[in-house]
Amino acid sequence: MARYLFRRMLSLALSLLAASLVIFLVIEVVPGDPASYMLGLNASPETVDALRDQLGLNAAAPARYLSWIWGMAQGDFGLSYTYKVPVSGLVAQRLEVSLPLALYALGLSALVAFPAGLLAAARRGRLADTAVMGATQLGISLPNFWFAMLLVLVFALHWRIFPAGGFPGWDGGIGAGLAALTLPAIALALPQAAILARVLRSALIETEGQDYIRTARAKGLTRTQTMIRHALRNAMIPVLTILGMQFSFLLAGAIIIENVFYLPGLGRLIFQAITQRDLIVVESVVMILVFAVILVTFLVDLAYALIDPRLRRRA
């Protein structure tokens, strides 16, 4: 197991190094002069030179890359050109919204998907299976931003149960914060729950053909009991893969939903930084999101080993 952990951590470190090199090349080297891009076409040469000095762009590319990596290792992500504050502070503020929103949406997705997937697999070929698969197809097809606006129309404007947008902050209480995140979380969870339910159903049906499942049925267990007690754990590996991918998407890919509900999250921060040409924020936030995705993948790999003893013995 220790060897398995070492190999996975080495893979994580190499992935981070490769991702940081690609991000640095794409943002600071390939497009040309970052200072000219940030200031626009009408900037004077003196202003561009001053910004180049401020950002340290006169140094060689390898030296700038090493300085950037060393700064991130110490928690220094630079100073935002637009907001004139440290990028680490901006990210911390936006994570207070994006991280709870991602966890909330992922929890709602699992809460819907697991019963639906189990029901569809246990009633394969019957009316319940057809209904669940039809509902998941609809959930995948509906654009989440359209569904989000429908939720606002019904639950915020008509029934006035939840706020239509904005975030009051956690200082106003957990209840108020969760109420502000409920409609965005539902809008994000709908397509993710549909995908997860379909994957779970397929994994359970594939597992159902194994010998130990037939043995359990021969001992008198019903199909539903066999699914829950024996098949579910062995079908969790593809499900965990989808859960990890969904969390990464929900953390970084909720730009449209955050703009629909005016939520000050990471997705909206990246969108604003791109429109404002704040390459320092873009570079740092993208690197943080890449680290989050790789870390989640690493944790999913560890969960594989915990669920499947064969992976531990093989390692």
Automatic annotation (TrEMBL):
<dbReference type="Pfam" id="PF00528">
    <property type="entry name" value="BPD_transp_1"/>
</dbReference>
<feature type="transmembrane region" description="Helical">
    <location>
        <begin position="285"/>
        <end position="307"/>
    </location>
</feature>
<comment type="similarity">
    <text>Belongs to the binding-protein-dependent transport system permease family.</text>
</comment>
<feature type="transmembrane region" description="Helical">
    <location>
        <begin position="142"/>
        <end position="162"/>
    </location>
</feature>
<keyword id="KW-1133">Transmembrane helix</keyword>
<dbReference type="InterPro" id="IPR000515">
    <property type="entry name" value="MetI-like"/>
</dbReference>
<protein>
    <submittedName>
        <fullName>ABC transporter permease</fullName>
    </submittedName>
</protein>
<keyword id="KW-0812">Transmembrane</keyword>
<feature type="domain" description="ABC transmembrane type-1">
    <location>
        <begin position="95"/>
        <end position="300"/>
    </location>
</feature>
<feature type="transmembrane region" description="Helical">
    <location>
        <begin position="235"/>
        <end position="257"/>
    </location>
</feature>
<keyword id="KW-0472">Membrane</keyword>
<feature type="transmembrane region" description="Helical">
    <location>
        <begin position="101"/>
        <end position="121"/>
    </location>
</feature>
<dbReference type="InterPro" id="IPR045621">
    <property type="entry name" value="BPD_transp_1_N"/>
</dbReference>
<dbReference type="Pfam" id="PF19300">
    <property type="entry name" value="BPD_transp_1_N"/>
</dbReference>
<keyword id="KW-1003">Cell membrane</keyword>
<dbReference type="InterPro" id="IPR035906">
    <property type="entry name" value="MetI-like_sf"/>
</dbReference>
<feature type="transmembrane region" description="Helical">
    <location>
        <begin position="174"/>
        <end position="197"/>
    </location>
</feature>
<keyword id="KW-0813">Transport</keyword>
